[in-house]
C-alpha cells in the first residue's frame, strides 16, 4: 500500500529538491511537495493545505532555516521541521536544534532522510494527541468540578479530604478549605470507623473495583440528607487515594417511601370497614410517613366542621394538638384554611411556614399562630372528595425543617385522600348492608312475636267458645264478649299484616294513592263514631270547623293514617282518659291534631319516631305491644299527599300528633286565615298547652 506524504520544501535549488523528492518516492511514498524559498511563499504555502513535514535548506539567497523556523512558529502549527543542508558548523547545528528544529541531515548523506521523516511525523502525532488529552482532561476537570454530584478525593490511610468539587461545597455549605480539614466520617453521622473499614475492605483486598452504599450526610447548618456513595480506590496515585461520588437521593427516597406508604395505606384501608377506624388509620399512617401531625375534619350536614381523627408523633405536645381542634373548629373565623380548601375543593400547601404563607386572609388567624407555636415547618391540606362532593379535609403538619412539603407530597396526600374516600364509601356500603341485615332480623323477630300474641288470643278464645257451645248448645252474653275479643284480635292481626304489606309496598315503590276530594271533617267524624263505642276507659272529643275541610287524597289511606294515630293515642294512654281530635285550617294547610294525655315520648326518642321498627324506651317499659311500623307508614302516606307529620310531646304528660295536608284551593274560603275557625265540638276543647320545644317534624326528619 502506498502511503501519502505532503512535504513543504524550503529550498532554492531545483536540483536538490528533485533529489530529495526522488529519495522519498523511492521509499514507496505517494508524494505531494511544494518548493518555496522566501518567507512570503512559505507562509502562503502553509495556509494552502496541511503538510506532514517541512524540510529546509540552511542557507538560501533570500531565506534561511532559522528564518523559516520563525515563520513556522508564528503560524502556530506544530509540524516536524528537519534541516537538510550542505555542511554547516557544529555550533550552527546545535543552535538551529535549540531554536526548535527537530533534526539535522547532510545533503550528501540522505540515507537517514526517510527514517527521520517517519520518526518525526510519529512524534508530532504523539505531541498532538498529548495536547488533546491535556485539554480534554482540563475540560473534564472543570465539568466534574461544576457537577452537582459531590466528588471527593481523600487519603486512603488518614481518610482526610484532599480535594472536593464545587458540588460538594455547595451542597454541604462548607468552603474547600474547611472541607480539607475534615474526613467523610465527620460528615456522615451514621458512619463510624468500624463501619467504614468494613465497607472499604473489599477495595483494599482488590476484590471489587467499586463499592456502593447509602448513608446520611450532614450539612454545615446541621440539616441532613440521604446520599448514595460510589467509592473507588485509586492505587495509581502516590500515596493511594479514595475517590467518592455522592448523589443526593432525597427525591428517590421520597418516591420509594411514597410507594411503600401507598401500599401500606391500601392494605390498612382495605381492612377497615367503619368510618372511625378508617379515619384513624389514615392519620396514623400519615404520621409514620408523611407528617408529624395529621388531622381529619369532616363537614357536617349543617355546615359545621367536626374533628374525627388525629394522630401526632411523640415530640408534639397533645395540648397543642387539642388546641388545633379547638382553634380550627370552635373558633372558626372566616375565611379559614380548612374552609378555603373545602370551598375551592383544591389542595393547599404552605411549603415553609416562616416564609411563604397561609393565605393573606388568615395571616392573623389563631390557627396561624398555633401553627407557629407547634413549630410547624410546613403545612398542607387536601380535600376528602367523594363523587365530586367534599366530605372533609385532611391536614398534614411537618415540624421537621428537613421535610418541607412540595407538590410531590401534595400528590401523595391527594392519592391517600382519594383511596381513603373509596374506603369510606366501602365502609358506608358495608354499614348499610349490615343495617339491612339487622333490620331483617329485627323484623323477623318482632313480626313473629307480635303476630303470635293476637293469634294465641284468637286460638284460645275460638277453642273456648267452641267447647262451650258444644257443651251447652246455648249462646250466652259471655260468649258475645269472647266473640268481641276474637273480633278485636282479628282486626289487630289484620292491621299488622296490612302494615307489613304496606312496608313491602313502600320498599318496592308501589304504594300509590288514588286522588279524590276528601272532606277531612266528615272522615274524622265517621272514624270517631266507629271507634268510640268500643272504648271503655277512653273518650274521644272532636273539634272541627263548621264547613268541610277539603283535601285531595285517598280516603282509605287517609283513614288509615288517622286510625293509626288514634289507635296509638288510645294504646299509649293505658290509664284511660280524654283524647282530642281537632281539625283547623292554617293558611293553605289543613291540620289534624290528635292529643292524648298518655305516657308521652322521651325527647331523645323524638327524632327517631318515624323510623322503621323504632319504639321509644317507655313504650316497651310500659309493656305496650307494637311493631314500630305504624308511624313509618303514616309518614310515607302523608308524604304521598304532599303533607307532613309533626309530633309534640312531654314524657309523662301526653303527646300530640299533627298531620298537615294541603287544602284544595276552592275550600280555602271561610275562616282559612287562622286556626281560630269556629269549631263544632262534641265535648270539652283540647288542652292547648303544648310543649312547643318538643315538636318534631316528620318531614324535617326525612330531609335530615
Ligand atoms: P308501635 O306503636 O307499633 O310501636 P308506631 O310506629 O305506631 O309503632 O309508633 C312508634 C313508636 O312511637 C311507639 O313504639 C311509641 O314509642 C311511640 N308512640 C307513638 N304514638 C305514641 C303516643 N301517642 N304516645 C306515646 N308514644 C307514642
What does this entry look like structurally?
With 704 residues, this protein is an alpha+beta fold. Helix content is 46%, strand content 23%. The strands form 5 sheets. Strands 23-17-19-20-22-21-24 form a 7-stranded mixed beta sheet. Strands 2-1-3-4-5 form a 5-stranded parallel beta sheet, with helices on both faces. A hairpin with a 2-residue loop joins strand 19 (577-586) and strand 20. The longest helix is centred in the middle third of the chain and has 66 residues, at 407-472. The protein starts with a strand and ends with a helix. Bound molecules: adenosine-5'-diphosphate. The site of adenosine-5'-diphosphate has 20 residues, from helix 18 and helix 20.
Give a quick rundown of the structure.
By secondary structure, the chain is α+β, with helices and mostly antiparallel strands.
Query: What share of residues are in beta strands?
Result: 15-25%
Strand order of the largest sheet: 23-17-19-20-22-21-24
Write down the overall geometry.
rod-shaped
Biggest sheet record: 7 strands, mixed
Number of E-type strands: 24
Spatial gap, N to C terminus:
101 Å
Q: Which segments are poorly predicted (pLDDT under 50) over 5 or more consecutive residues?
A: 327-335, 360-364, 669-704
Helix content: 40-55%
Bound molecules: adenosine-5'-diphosphate
Mean residue pLDDT:
84
The number of distinct helices, counting runs of at least 4 residues, comes to 21
Class from secondary-structure proportions: alpha+beta
Amino acid at each position: 500500500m502506498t502511503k501519502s506524504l505532503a512535504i513543504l520544501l524550503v529550498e532554492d535549488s531545483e536540483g536538490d529538491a528533485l533529489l530529495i523528492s526522488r529519495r522519498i518516492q523511492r521509499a514507496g511514498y505517494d508524494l505531494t511537495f511544494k518548493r518555496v524559498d522566501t518567507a512570503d511563499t512559505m507562509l502562503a504555502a502553509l495556509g494552502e493545505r496541511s503538510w506532514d513535514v517541512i524540510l529546509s535548506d540552511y542557507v538560501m539567497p533570500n531565506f534561511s532555516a532559522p528564518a523559516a523556523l520563525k515563520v513556522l512558529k508564528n503560524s502556530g502549527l506544530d509540524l516536524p521541521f528537519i534541516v537538510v543542508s550542505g555542511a554547516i558548523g557544529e555550533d550552527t547545528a546545535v543552535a538551529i536544534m535549540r531554536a526548535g528544529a527537530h533534526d539535522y541531515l547532510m545533503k550528501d548523506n540522505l540515507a537517514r532522510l526517510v527514517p527521520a521523516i517517519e520518526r518525526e511525523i510519529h512524534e508530532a502525532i504523539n505531541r498532538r494527541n498529548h495536547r488533546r488529552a491535556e485539554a480534554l482532561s482540563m475540560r473534564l476537570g472543570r465539568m466534574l468540578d461544576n457537577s452537582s454530584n459531590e466528588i471527593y478525593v481523600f487519603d486512603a490511610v488518614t481518610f482526610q479530604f484532599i480535594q472536593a468539587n464545587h458540588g460538594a461545597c455547595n451542597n454541604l455549605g462548607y468552603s474547600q478549605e474547611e472541607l480539607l480539614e475534615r474526613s467523610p466520617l465527620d460528615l456522615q453521622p451514621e458512619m463510624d470507623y468500624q463501619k467504614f473499614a468494613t465497607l472499604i475492605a473489599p477495595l483494599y483486598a482488590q476484590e471489587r473495583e467499586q463499592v456502593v452504599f447509602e448513608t446520611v450526610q450532614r450539612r454545615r447548618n446541621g440539616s441532613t440528607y440521604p446520599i448514595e456513595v460510589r467509592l473507588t480506590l485509586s492505587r495509581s496515585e502516590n500515596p493511594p487515594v479514595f475517590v467518592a461520588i455522592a448523589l443526593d437521593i432525597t427525591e428517590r427516597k421520597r418516591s420509594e417511601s411514597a410507594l411503600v406508604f401507598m401500599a401500606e395505606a391500601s392494605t390498612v384501608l382495605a381492612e377497615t370497614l367503619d368510618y372511625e377506624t378508617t379515619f384513624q388509620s389514615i392519620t396514623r399512617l400519615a404520621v409514620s410517613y408523611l407528617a408529624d401531625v395529621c388531622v381529619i375534619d369532616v363537614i357536617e350536614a349543617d355546615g359545621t366542621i367536626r374533628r374525627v381523627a388525629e394522630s401526632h408523633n411523640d415530640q408534639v405536645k397533645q395540648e397543642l394538638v387539642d388546641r388545633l381542634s379547638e382553634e380550627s373548629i370552635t373558633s372558626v373565623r372566616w375565611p379559614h384554611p380548612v374552609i378555603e380548601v373545602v370551598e375551592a375543593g383544591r389542595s393547599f400547601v404552605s411549603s415553609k411556614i416562616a416564609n411563604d404563607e397561609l393565605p393573606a386572609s388568615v395571616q392573623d388567624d389563631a390557627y396561624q399562630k398555633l401553627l407557629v407555636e407547634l413549630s410547624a415547618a410546613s403545612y398542607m391540606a387536601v380535600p376528602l372528595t367523594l363523587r365530586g362532593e367534599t366530605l372533609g379535609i385532611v391536614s398534614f403538619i411537618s415540624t421537621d425543617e428537613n421535610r418541607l412539603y412540595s407538590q410531590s407530597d401534595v400528590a401523595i396526600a391527594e392519592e391517600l385522600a382519594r383511596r381513603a374516600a373509596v374506603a369510606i364509601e366501602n365502609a358506608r356500603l358495608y354499614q348499610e348492608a349490615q343495617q339491612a341485615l339487622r333490620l331483617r332480623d329485627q323484623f323477623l323477630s318482632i313480626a313473629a312475636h307480635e303476630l303470635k300474641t293476637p293469634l294465641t288470643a284468637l286460638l284460645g278464645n275460638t277453642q273456648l267458645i267452641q267447647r262451650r257451645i258444644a257443651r251447652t248448645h246455648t249462646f250466652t252474653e259471655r260468649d258475645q264478649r269472647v266473640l268481641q275479643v276474637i273480633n278485636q284480635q282479628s282486626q289487630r292481626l289484620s292491621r299488622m299484616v296490612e302494615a307489613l304489606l304496606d312496608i313491602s309496598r313502600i320498599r318496592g315503590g308501589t304504594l300509590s294513592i288514588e286522588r279524590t276530594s276528601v272532606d277531612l271533617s266528615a272522615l274524622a267524624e265517621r272514624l270517631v263514631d266507629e271507634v268510640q263505642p268500643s272504648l271503655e276507659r277512653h273518650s274521644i272529643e272532636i273539634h272541627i270547623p263548621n264547613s268541610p275541610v277539603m283535601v285531595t287524597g285517598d280516603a282509605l289511606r287517609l283513614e288509615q293514617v288517622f286510625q293509626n294515630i288514634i289507635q296509638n293515642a288510645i294504646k299509649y294512654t293505658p290509664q284511660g282518659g280524654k283524647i282530642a281530635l281537632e281539625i283547623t285550617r292554617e293558611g293553605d294547610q289543613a291540620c289534624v291534631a290528635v292529643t292524648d294525655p298518655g305516657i308521652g315520648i322521651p325527647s331523645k326518642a323524638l327524632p327517631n319516631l318515624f323510623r322503621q321498627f323504632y319504639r321509644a324506651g317507655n313504650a316497651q317499659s310500659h309493656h305496650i305491644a307494637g311493631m314500630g311500623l305504624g308511624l313509618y307508614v303514616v309518614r310515607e302516606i302523608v308524604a304521598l299527599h304532599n303533607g307532613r307529620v309533626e309530633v309534640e310531646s312531654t314524657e309523662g304528660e301526653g303527646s300530640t300528633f299533627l298531620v298537615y295536608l294541603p287544602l284544595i284551593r276552592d275550600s280555602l274560603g271561610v275562616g282559612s286565615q287562622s286556626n281560630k275557625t269556629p269549631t263544632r265540638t262534641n265535648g270539652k276543647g283540647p288542652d292547648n298547652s303544648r310543649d312547643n320545644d318538643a315538636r318534631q317534624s316528620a318531614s324535617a326528619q326525612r330531609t335530615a
